[in-house]
Amino acid sequence: MPFVCDGNGQENILKITLIQPPKPRYGVQAEDDWVLARPFSLFFLAASIEKHTQYEVQIVDLEQRKYRNIPLKTVFGESNSQIYGITATTLTRYEAVKIAKYIKKSHPDVMVIAGGVHFMHCAEDTLNSVPEIDIVVRGEGEIIIVELANAICRRQNIEHIKGITYRKDGKIAVNQDEALVEDLDGLPYYSKFSWDEYPEYLFGYPERIRAISVMSSRGCPFNCVFCTKAGMKYRVRNAKNIVDEIQNLMDKFDVAGVNFLDLTFTADSNHLTAVCNEMINRRLNLKWWCESRANISLDLLDIMKRAGCVSTVVGVESGSPRILSAISKNISLDQVLAFCRKCSDLEIFAIPYFMFSLPGEKKRDLKLTLDLIIRLEKLRGIGPCAFQPTLIMPGTEIERISYKRGFLKKGFSWYEPYYSDFNVKLGQLPNIPLFIDKLNPDKFIKVLKELELRRKFSKAEKLGLRDLIRKGINLLRRQPSSLKYVFSPKYYCKFIVNKIKEMLS
Ligand code: B12
Ligand code: SF4
């Protein structure tokens, strides 16, 4: 059916459907209470399309429970859009491809566009492996999707549109990169969001506080080797604009909490101070969560607390200075300790994130990491720390190292079937390859068990003698194998040394 690019609602205006695939339901992801992934990227794209065009845009979020076990035919069979835009992370890539294949088969004349943090880093691989995808958008999509929709609506060619990889005369054409959006304040607030559909609570906080998500900056000035967004130019919004948006969302949805979606909310002290002061001056009485770096000036934590920060995630990754340097983390252990102590004093819940099997990591590095985790978890309100093996994600330095060292074979495609039971045993995403360098994988399960045991031991240190004996008997009933530790002089010595240290401090 013909469609038009401008209209008064009577005509058959161009229609765009934006899709978030569901998470694959296996391994750890099968748990029903796993955090709902809200399609913010699509909310941002929809707002931009609504601001700049008259096209009809809808979001189909297959992650939502109402779509579970509903066949694609039921969802898209009757759909009459001309453009389908699909987002994906590396975790959801196979689901995204399944959707692209279905749509192209059932509606051969439509355009299927893929974008997001996964596709942008393997655009050529995607087009080579998935003939049903017509275009991959490699950058931020707000401007590009509008340009593409206009060109498609007006039947113009797309050769001049930056930031896309697409098919042309049977070959794959790679257009020049599109600059990142510089004026973040010029972007419209995200749309198509309703709290009822996407109930959200403050992250990392014991109380269930109704919350919404806001993004105050994009990109990150740091270059951690495992991160998909490493080195992406850092840009900030104006503090007033951010807090206006927060107030707007608070009034609309009656929320009292904010989760900041920024990669690193604390990356720029001027920006952070300005946003905090704006929240303080407006007396918002908000509680908020953010992701933080450990190498910030500690005074900033005071301002954050005054502005309502109640919890944060902090990327530590390793307890070994050698590894911190190898992964370009740019933080020191002293900074980590000082950051966590200060959070503990201020009663900001902090969850330190750690990784293992990092490049060049050996047993002795791992021991330092376990020591640091236990040390941090002894601080009130800190942890439990997250501790996960390194996964290979497209576009990262880890991916480049993996090709160089042959961990990923030449010609590897992100669309080859990949499923690892070993990942499941580690409580990890099974469809993303593990990065295995110097540490023997046999050690991985052992190290997770060792951490659990050390945590139990560390908890036991805090108990009185009677509780200790009671818990010990219960543990032996449940896990007779732990008897060996009862007779381990090493653990008794450690216990006594720690008790003496505690008394002295
Ligand atoms: C909030 C968040 C979550 C939330 C919700 C996720 C969600 N989908 O909203 C939760 C806690 C559930 C979560 C879980 C996970 N997350 Co997360 N998460 C984030 C975070 C902080 C914000 C996501 C966001 O809203 N970004 C804002 C939008 C605007 O940015 P964007 O997604 O890149 O979109 C832009 C462009 O990519 C493009 N675009 C995107 N899609 C499309 C589609 C089309 C058609 C077009 C044209 C353009 C386009 O335009 C957008 C606007 O400019 C990001 C970090 C970050 N700040 O981006 C990590 C991030 C996305 N998460 C990441 C990871 C690894 C995960 C997990 C796998 C963690 C785990 N071990 O379980 C899971 C996977 C969840 C899933 N369903 O895939 C990685 C993704 C790496 C990768 N290659 O997949 C990121 C990038 C963090 C990082 N630094 O590495 N996450
Ligand atoms: S892990 Fe965090 S600090 Fe490091 S590059 Fe990624 S976003 Fe930046």
What does the model show?
- The protein has 505 residues and is an alpha/beta fold.
- It has three domains: 3-174, Response regulator (Rossmann fold, 3-Layer(aba) Sandwich); 194-372, Aldolase class I (TIM Barrel); 461-505, no CATH class.
- The protein is built from 17 helices and 15 strands.
- Helix 7 (269-281) links the parallel strand 11 (257-260) and strand 12.
- Helix 6 (239-253) packs across helix 7.
- The radius of gyration is 25 Å and the shape is globular.
- The N and C termini lie far apart (78 Å).
- Cobalamin binds at residues 23, 35, 37-41, 44-45, 85-87, 89-92, 113, 115-118, 120, 137, 140-142, 144-145, 215, 227-229, 261, 263, 393, 429.
List keywords for this structure.
single chain, alpha/beta, TIM Barrel, 3 domains, Rossmann fold, six-stranded parallel sheet, seven-stranded mixed sheet, 505 residues
Strand order of the largest sheet: 2-1-3-4-5-6-7
Quaternary status = single chain
Average of the residue pLDDT scores: 92
**Helix run count:** 17
How many distinct beta strands? 15
Number of domains: 3
Which ligands, by name, code or SMILES, are bound?
cobalamin, iron/sulfur cluster
- Highest-level CATH class of the largest domain: Alpha Beta
Question: Could you give me the name of the CATH homologous superfamily of the largest domain?
Answer: Aldolase class I
Which geometry do the CA atoms define?
globular
